[in-house]
User: Fold this.
Amino acid sequence: MSVAKVIEVIAEGDSVEKAIDAAVKEASKTVRGIKSVYVEGIQGKVKDGKVTEYRVNAKITFVLGD
Assistant:
């Protein structure tokens, strides 16, 4: 039987996909066994009437132990 844990991170990128990738990439620097990412929320930074950056609230699931 395995046990999983979920952490929540916020990451930014030029697109939603890049923001998700950044969340997983940064979390994987200190967390092993990442199995999934769930995007709970998406925000856009707006400047001069245009979206300039995207921000995601991501929940990252990883398995504890072996």
About this structure: Residues 45 and 52 are 6 Å apart (CA to CA). The chain has one domain: 3-64. The chain is about 20% helix and 60% strand. The longest strand covers residues 50-64.
